[in-house]
Specification:
This protein is an alpha/beta fold. The protein is 37% helix and 16% strand. It has a single domain (79-406), classed as 3-Layer(aba) Sandwich (Rossmann fold). The chain contains 13 helices and 14 strands.
Length: 406
């Protein structure tokens, strides 16, 4: 069962019943699921989790699926929080933790949100899902839709990493490669969804992916003994993780599972695509679209986030900050962290290491701080990107039955 009671617009406060199939509010804002936290407080306690499987579904009462028969799972979540002793020693920090999301079923943190979105699609009887993706989300949706027996349509920029393109095909989804960016993919879905009967599961254009992402915050709290670190550094494209973790912390506080000060949240973007960083630095409430977005970190190549105002709100409420790092810094940290910690970071994850280093140098992070950074996906999904950068053989062409849309 679920304790979800309604869906709320955080901008205009309009409310919707949970049984309604929602995308954005009429005011253009993303929607967020609200729970009856008073009832939830009496229904479950932290000690109950000890007997539950190590997946994100251990937080079942905090998730929106009404009927367990509609849960679509590939055993996602409860990824390890690994102490980065070498990195902490090098940076002279008290404690650094790596939340290694590469352990999820399709190798990235996208599985958290999309397992919930697909489960809700099954609950609502939706038959066709569509998503724009510059990388891992397309593969994740394809896998969960296959598991659920739901048709998936994935639109990707033509220069998306080959591993992402190949996995979409192998999961049996309908793939369209697009000349342009993820924003162009999103435009195609918006223009065609009514005619084609697609339900749009773009980042924060429905309220359920964020519910899966909030479990990252739940896990960090549980893995640290129901306390929170001083700083969380997170790579930002669409921003679902920021919004989800902050929402999750509020829910845990409301039911009395955590107390005290929340972490300062740090947004990291690529210097070739940093709309949130620019808006934060200019003290704006919204972010202007970024023109000519370029970065090897495909997950960070998001020129405009529909939830920009919510990301900026989290940064300011948490007394956090935002910064951008270069592709060269990401590549350097992939090699450096691999040698220090034995983990193969993706570029987006490496951006959090580069940001950590920069913030320590600026003394924004003090030596006694406890910090959580992220490896959001496996570096193995970027082998063709690394190969082209180092003039290695690409291993041939991708032979895909696909459309290319100008």
């Amino acid at each position: 069962m679920t304790f979800a009671k309604e869906v709320l617009c955080p901008r205009c406060d309009r409310r919707f019943p949970c049984g309604k199939i929602p995308n954005l509010c009429s005011c253009g804002s993303p929607l967020l699921v609200q729970y009856d936290l008073e009832k939830l407080t009496h229904a479950v306690k932290p000690s109950d989790l000890e007997r539950r499987p190590p997946t994100l579904w251990r937080y079942r009462e905090f998730l929106p699926v009404s009927d367990d028969r509609n849960i679509v799972s590939l055993v996602e979540g409860f990824t390890p929080l690994i102490e980065a002793k070498g990195l902490a020693r090098e940076l002279r920090l008290k404690k650094v933790w790596i939340k290694d999301e590469s352990r999820n079923p399709t190798g990235s943190f996208k599985d958290r949100g999309l397992c919930i979105a697909v489960s809700m699609a099954k609950e609502f009887g939706i038959k066709r899902l569509a998503i724009p993706s510059a990388g891992n989300a397309g593969g994740s949706l394809s896998a969960y839709a296959a598991r659920a027996g739901i048709e998936a349509h994935v639109f990707m920029p033509k220069d998306t990493p080959r591993a992402n393109i190949i996995e979409v095909e192998k999961y049996g989804a309908h793939l369209t490669l697009v000349e342009g960016l993820i924003s162009d993919c999103g435009r195609i879905i918006a223009e065609g969804k009514e005619k084609e009967g697609w339900f749009d599961v773009s980042t924060l254009k429905e309220p359920y992916r964020v519910e899966g992402k909030k479990t990252i915050g739940f896990e960090i709290a549980e893995q640290l003994g129901w306390r929170l670190p001083d700083v969380i550094i997170y790579p930002t494209g669409g921003g679902t993780g920021h919004i989800g973790m902050w929402k999750g912390f509020a829910e845990l506080e409301a039911v009395g599972w955590i107390k005290g000060k929340r972490p300062r949240i740090v947004t990291v973007q690529a210097s070739g695509c940093a709309p949130i960083v620019r808006a934060f630095d200019e003290r704006k409430e919204k972010a202007e679209p970024w023109s000519d977005a370029r970065t090897i970190a495909s997950g960070l190549r998001v020129p405009q986030a529909v939830a920009d105002f919510l990301i900026l709100r989290v940064l300011r409420e948490s007394n956090g900050t935002a910064l951008s790092v270069s592709d060269e810094e990401m590549l350097a940290e992939i090699a450096r962290t691999g040698k220090l910690e034995g983990l193969f970071f993706c570029p987006e994850g490496a951006a959090t290491v580069a940001a950590l280093r920069r913030l320590v140098e600026k003394r924004w992070i003090q030596p006694d701080a406890e910090v959580v950074i992220f490896n959001t996906a496996s570096g193995f999904k970027y082998l063709d990107v690394f190969g082209s950068l180092f003039n290695l053989s690409s291993g041939g062409e991708v032979h895909a039955s696909k459309n290319i849309v100008p």
